[in-house]
Design a protein that fits this description.
- The strands form 4 sheets. Strands 3, 5, 6, 9, 10, 17 and 18 form a 7-stranded mixed sheet that branches.
- It is globular and about 60 Å long.
- α4 crosses α5.
- By secondary structure, it is of the alpha/beta class.
- The chain binds nicotinamide-adenine-dinucleotide and zinc ion (2 copies).
- One zinc ion binds next to α2.
Length: 343
């Protein structure tokens, strides 16, 4: 079968022929219906230093955001009939540690490689899922290609926003920085699950237009006046929650400058920026956290929102043979919403 692989560090991904996977005991092979291209893959492909910087063995198939149909099940797998449409919960943990047992495999204490992040992922005709528990049946009405982005571009902001729900009442303001694959879902998730005003920030005008069309109450271009503009929108108080889908020095600075005392500043983007933390450098009682992906139960909740039409990924479909073009466009910043590769 055809697969898009990371073959070398600091290089473009390549389309190659690989063997079709067979499920072992407890495993499931899905026929991929769609796999999303995440900006994390850009960091992985071009920004990791190389051998020794990661625990991975190259080559491996990219794609950590996928949905499809059950194609073959290994012995011992129950309740997943062939042909069933499923989403893959990609934050694969060991399944045995206390975090995994509590259902938060995204914070597994003995992390294992995850599909598309060190072992074969979903940018191929078939995907081997090592444990049947990682599959969540798709609710009626959700097509795998449209649902694939929900498993990361949707799930990651859903997790980040969900933990700030208590701070996002009717008088609150939420700021979304970076309205790409994740951020355009964040705007919708905020509108669907909170009563907060939403301010969206992006360098690109098209992204700001997309945010507005998805319900953002205000859009702001980053730059010297952005913090002042956002403070103005909040009558000087600042934002109750800032979700940073970039994570650069500049966006962290903007996040701190616009945070309200007692607010949340959540770093999702992995641009690798930093901010000097100290008593005098951040407003009182602002909680600053980084987040990684989301749990399976959060994915179930998000799929429910999507099946009811309350959130909908904006996707551009690329056939597998054109997957390198999807990554080129993601790298160059010319996409809107999410690129989904359909084999
Ligand atoms: P994307 O390329 O689709 O979107 C990024 C958006 O940010 C673009 O619209 C771009 O114009 C905008 N942007 C860039 N610099 C900006 C700036 N200085 N100010 C305002 N906007 C700016 O990327 P994506 O796939 O949505 O991923 C976003 C980030 O989240 C990436 O760093 C990715 O690696 C990371 N990520 C983290 C997790 C996690 O679990 N923490 C999961 C998935 C992705
Ligand atoms: Zn991702
Ligand atoms: Zn674990």
């Amino acid at each position: 079968m055809r697969a898009l692989q990371m073959v070398r560090y600091k290089s473009d991904p390549e389309l190659v022929d690989v063997a079709q996977p067979e499920p072992g005991p407890g495993q499931v092979v899905i026929k991929v219906g769609g796999a999303g291209a995440c900006h994390s893959d850009i960091h992985i492909l071009y920004e990791t230093a190389g051998e020794g910087d990661t625990p991975w063995r190259l080559p491996f198939t990219l794609g950590h955001e996928a949905a499809g149909w059950v194609h073959a099940v290994g012995s011992g797998v129950r309740g997943l009939e062939v042909g069933r449409a499923v989403a893959v919960h990609g934050a694969w943990g060991c399944g045995a540690c206390s975090r995994c047992r509590a259902g938060v495999e995204n914070y597994c204490e003995h992390p294992v490689p995850q599909g598309g992040l060190g072992i074969d992922g979903g940018m191929a005709e078939y995907l081997l899922v090592p444990e049947a528990r990682h599959l969540v049946p798709l609710p009626d009405g959700l097509d795998p290609a449209a649902a694939a982005p929900l498993t990361d571009a949707g799930l990651t902001p859903y997790h980040a926003i969900r933990r700030s729900w208590p701070k996002l009442g009717p008088t609150a303001t939420a700021v979304v920085v970076g309205v790409g694959g994740l951020g355009h879902m964040a705007v919708q998730i905020l509108k669907a699950t909170t009563a907060a005003r939403v301010v969206a920030v992006d360098t690109k005008e098209e992204a700001r237009d997309l945010a507005r069309s998805l319900g953002a109450d205000h859009v702001v271009a980053p730059g010297e006046t952005a913090a002042k503009e956002i403070r103005g929108i909040t009558d000087g108080r600042g934002a109750d929650a800032v979700f940073d889908f970039v994570g650069s020095d500049a966006t962290l600075q903007l996040g701190v400058a616009t945070s309200r005392p007692l607010g949340d500043l959540t770093i999702v983007g992995i641009a690798g920026g930093s901010y000097p933390l100290g008593f005098f450098s951040v407003p009182y009682e602002v909680s600053i956290q980084s987040v990684y992906w989301g749990s399976r139960s959060e994915l179930v909740e998000l799929l429910d929102l999507a099946a009811r039409g309350l959130v909908r990924p904006e996707v551009t479909i690329f056939p597998l043979e054109k997957a390198p073009e999807a990554y080129r466009a993601l790298h160059d910043g010319t996409l809107s919403g999410r690129a989904v590769v359909v084999p």
